[in-house]
Amino acid sequence: MRLRLKPGQRIGAAVLVGLAGFAVLEWLLNAGDPAAQDLANAFAPPSLGEPLGTDQFGRSMLARMGAALRLSLLLSLLCVTTSASLGIALGVVAGWRRGLLDRVLSFFLNLLLALPGLVLILLFAGLAPGSLPMLYLAISLVLWVEYFRVVRAIARGVVASPPMQASRMLGFGRLYCFRRHLWPAMLAPLLSLAAFGAAGAILALAALGFVSVGLKPPTAELGLMMVELFPYYSDAPWVLAQPVLAVFLLVLGLQLLAGKHP
Amino acid sequence: MIHLFLKRLGQAAFVCWSVGTLGFALMRLLPGDMAFRIAAGRYGYDQVNLAAAEAVRAELGLDRPAWRLYLEWLFDLLRLDLGDSLVSGLPVLGEILHLLGHTLLLAGAAMLIAILIAVPVGLFAAFRAEGWFDRAALVASAFLRAQPVFVIGLLLLLIFALELRLFPVAGFDGARYLVLPAIALALSMAAVSNRVVRHSAGAVIASAFFAFARVKGLSFAQAFVRHGLRNGALPVLAFLGIQLAGAIEGIVMIESLFSWPGLGHGLAHAVFNRDVPMIQGAAMTLGLIFVGLNLAVDLACHLVDPRGRSDE
Amino acid sequence: MKPLLRIENLSVYAGDRPLLENLSLSLCRGERLTILGETGAGKSILIQAIMGLLPPSLRASGSIQIDGRDLATLSRRELECLWGRRLAMLPQEPWHALDPLMRAGRQVAEVYACVLRQDAERAAANARRDLAGVGLEQAGDKLPGQLSGGMAQRLAFCAATAGGAQIVLADEPTKGLDADRRDHIAELLRRKGEEGCVLTISHDLEVARRIGGRVLVMRGGRPLEEGPAEQVLNAPTTDYSCRLIQAAPGHWPRIERRADGEPGPAVLEARGLAKRHGGKRLFQGLDLRVGRGEILGLVGDSGCGKSSLGDILLGLLAPDAGQVARAPGIARHRYLKLYQDPPAAFAADIPLGRLFADLLRLHRLDASRLPPLLERLRLHPTLLERPAHEVSGGELQRLAIARALLLEPVFLFADEPVSRLDPITAREVVQLLTSVATEHRCALLLVSHDPELVERVCKRTLRLG
Prior knowledge:
The complex is a heterotrimer.
Chain A: H1 7-30, H2 61-97, H3 99-112, H4 117-127, H5 132-160, H6 162-169, H7 174-210, H8 222-229, H9 237-258
Chain B: H1 2-29, H2 34-43, H3 50-60, H4 66-78, H5 92-127, H6 132-145, H7 149-163, H8 176-205, H9 208-216, H10 220-257, H11 263-273, H12 276-304
Helix pairs in contact in B: 1-4, 1-12, 2-3, 5-6, 5-8, 5-12, 6-8, 7-8, 7-10, 8-10, 9-10, 10-11, 10-12, 11-12
Chain C: E1 5-14, E2 17-27, E3 32-36, H1 43-51, E4 58-66, E5 69-70, H2 76-82, E6 87-90, H3 94-97, H4 104-114, H5 120-133, H6 149-161, E7 167-171, H7 179-195, E8 197-202, H8 205-211, E9 214-219, E10 222-228, H9 229-234, H10 239-246, E11 266-277, E12 280-291, E13 295-299, H11 306-313, E14 321-326, E15 335-338, H12 352-362, H13 370-376, H14 393-406, E16 411-415, H15 423-439, E17 443-447, H16 451-457, E18 460-463
Helix pairs in contact in C: 4-5, 4-6, 7-8, 14-15
């Protein structure tokens, strides 16, 4: 089972590879300290030494952007992996076995859906301010619901479908049915969901930073950088543009990769 | 019909319980002595002393076991007693009601603008599917969707408030203050929903029943009004239920950006200040608005779709 | 008399490939023409061409005239003005063609209101009269989802013709309907043909016979033979027409029905089965014994529970009451099912050969058994290199039979195995199925909506409903 990407998805993948490449290369080759201040050199325009210029404290924007991108990408990757594994596992079980477990899980799901995701994340952020593990937990808790819903619906359909019924009657086991019937049916929607989920995680992290309830300074984080640099928009617009552009490209790349909305 | 109400009622109850429980946990997790902090909230930090803190401790019964405090906390919630703000010392309920009005105003204005943009754009794109307008709408939507809502707000703020000075930057003091935040929110909502309208209308126009209506002799306009609107509205409504979550999130961000004195701003502010009763009140009210809007969507679907009604 | 519809040398091409070649016909008032032929013979393209609904990717030549006016000279608007007023089209899938949210009566009344500009009251009265005329007087307030297939097709008939059109085009109007309902629709078309003219496309010979008028046999997009219905159906002159007509179950050789009925030891015994579906009782107190190697037919109206009964016998569905006992000592996987829609039986997008290899490995079967089996079922081994959706329905159904036979089944439940196949292929598949079942001493429960088919090949028939 191979996935064929449409042209739009390829562009999205290319944008993401570019951003990830920048984040990794900055870490390997430049390895600047995103917190090192040089007040005499504030808002230095881009130069050979500082290709992206410096911010209000004279910190290297190259190092800060690299660190912020790594943070966003790693957090979204972690959140998506966690929530996807949880959602897929529970969704397959609930959609396949039906019965009590399905009813219990669906009940909790309906309850969880009663709170808008960001409000829930804000509440968790309030529980432990500035804590990255807490943000990771909160975002994953919000994201797994989508996987569960989609996988459960697909599993229900596939399990009741004639092809899988035929395989079961021919004597094939659960593992075979999962590999031949369930997994191929789930793969494309899951890729979409993963991309949307990653975009959601990046946006949530930036949003919390932006309203100053996420990670604390001096962490290099895209939302936090925007709100810190906003007062200086007329002095150094190119510096403010960097985190804005980074979030835009990250989310655009992921949305292009996701293709059609599921 | 009753089933719909019961389901949403259950969700509302869950919102209150879960937010209340989190609020209780937050309260216990606050750094420092809670009694001292509450006393500080009441009398101001300058006038607080140990005696005042002791008085508060006795009054709140903080020496009793946690599970009893928890039950009392929930019981207070049942009586709509949300406690007093740790920052201002005023009753939370009153502040919430004050903020709620502003939030509803902003949300209502934004939704109205979003509908005025999304429905005509979506329909026109669907009528000329794959034409230049459709493609332009697609690109513009993708562009807007890739921005977090606060970046849209930020750009509007930079251009129309700080550079052109057409509108005020932040706060609320008259209708002019409403324009930028409402447009920012509306743009982010319309970016997605115009495509949903486009796809839904496109699916209806390509459907067998639409073709059959034309073949029966109905004109395109007649067929669309009689068969397209209701059938096309169903997926849009179903999507609206999903998008509402995004709209509430957008409200939190936009209100914070424009210092709009609403619930979202209140919530973010309270989280920043660790003002637990306010966090609890604002989150709960936002959750309840969300559940209420979902109920409205359910009822709209019920009105549009005669299938599966119990009175059949 | 001036023809209402006249077609001259019509050809339709997809790129360079002809879908329809050199078709000429004309229909005057009171005439009926039924076009017979296997699916995919360009028949539906013809109706699309007449309606002016050909997809833009197709290219047409020749002329189509309606009331003497050439369609090519009409503007789009003028063409659309013919719809409903002069030209009516009956849909192939009535359920999909009806607005799922609008009540039956209104779907007819709106034609009177919008097309004929009658006031609401008169339009409603006319709609009620039309519905009563086709036996739907009780259904005016129902939604399409609450109608049966036959009722939905009659409703679509009323809605399509309410605008006063005299030229009626019907594309497989009886698809999926059982015999009684099929005859009812054919009768409606025959009556309509007496006022105007009717062009029907079908592969059901009985429909052609009942509508009467003329019959045109087509193959591969080319007209083969045309003549009065009785003449073509009773004494076809071309070889293909002969085969097409011989393929109708009514012409199949009859197997001997043995009165003594001494089937082998029971492989399956059911006692007191009952099942309800959607508040309706499907069957109750049903006893059934299936003997080794027995070929048993199962008939009944659509929705009467034929498939449910088969699924209960296979243990795929739980009965409300009663039990099913299998013969002791026989593996579970020797009770199998053949599906109505052949691709439904195979995992999508995977070469069939790999699915066969999976099965051989799972049950440690001797791979050398497969080639002779394929040969017996007249299947070419290279078919296994393709995934299911690239293989024709008839071949795929035979592959499904081959796959079942690998497991030496003792009981096969065939749920309408040929209803999606064209008549010539259907006959071939049913005859192969019954003969290999007999050879392998496998009991066969054959479901069909066509009592005649079951009559011809089954020794015993069970009727539901």
